[in-house]
Design a protein that fits this description.
Elements lengths: L7 H19 L4 E2 L1 H8 L3 H9 L11 E2 H12 L5 E6 L3 H7 L3 H4 L2 E8 L8 E2 L2 E5 L3 H7 L4 E4 L3 H13 L4 E4 L14 E4 L2 H17 L5
Parallel strand pairs: 3-4, 3-7, 4-6, 7-8, 8-9
Antiparallel strand pairs: 1-2, 5-6
């Protein structure tokens, strides 16, 4: 029997479940019903139950969900039950901001290298990580078991860099360059394209909708 296909919509909601459950744990909440979770998530209780039933359910009728257990199981589904080594290619403002984001480690992502081709940045420290030059990248990847690379490069450099990363064993690319790398890397490499301008455009649309509905003036 083939593996069950999970919809992209469900996968998109899983990190939100994980985040909200973490906040509940921090608040000392041990158990929660799908109805209570729906109020936090702004998703119907029925949708939550359907989403979780894709992976076994994890709850009991009239008993709800054990918050710690459910978060632990979602962590396993998302692959967060083990550490992931990550490098950042492009040590400009965005790259350094990503390197400085402390919550990555909390979610099992460990930044172990930062690379750029600007010699003025060579050996500058960002959270105890020295910025290395691009020509040092292949040797670094050969010596370190790195799975994920974040690309904060200009569009014109991203495709060539993606090919170098794939040739040196990178299995996943978090791409901030304004180009879709899914078209140029093998299907054996996972790619998540992040288009910041598109996100801002969606925000603009939501703002316009609120104005048209008379909810804001």
């Amino acid at each position: 029997m083939g593996q069950k296909v999970i919809s992209k919509a469900v996968i998109k909601r899983l990190p939100r479940y994980y985040r909200y459950l973490g906040e509940l744990l921090d608040a000392g909440v041990e158990r929660i019903s799908s109805g209570e979770l729906s109020q936090q998530m702004k998703v119907t209780a029925s949708q939550i139950r359907q989403d979780l039933n894709n992976f076994g359910g994890f709850g009991q009728q009239g008993y709800g969900y054990n918050v710690y257990y459910l978060r632990t199981e979602i962590a396993k589904i998302l692959g967060l039950d083990r550490p992931h080594k990550m490098i950042i290619i492009g040590a400009g403002n965005l790259g350094q901001a990503l390197a400085n984001y402390a919550k990555f480690e909390k979610n099992s992502f460990h930044v172990v290298g930062l690379f750029d081709n600007n010699k003025a940045l060579k050996r500058k420290m960002v959270r105890d990580i020295p910025i290395m030059m691009i020509d040092e990248l292949p040797g670094f990847l050969q010596k370190n078991d790195v799975e994920i690379a974040a690309l904060t490069l200009p569009k014109e450099n991203a495709i060539d860099m993606a090919q170098i990363l794939v040739e040196n064993g990178i299995h996943a690319i978090w791409n901030f360059a304004h180009t879709d790398l899914n078209l140029v890397v093998p299907k054996t490499v996972a790619v998540q394209n992040v288009h910041l301008s598109e996100s801002l455009m969606r925000l603009s649309y939501n703002l316009k909708t609120l104005e048209e509905e008379g909810k804001i003036k």
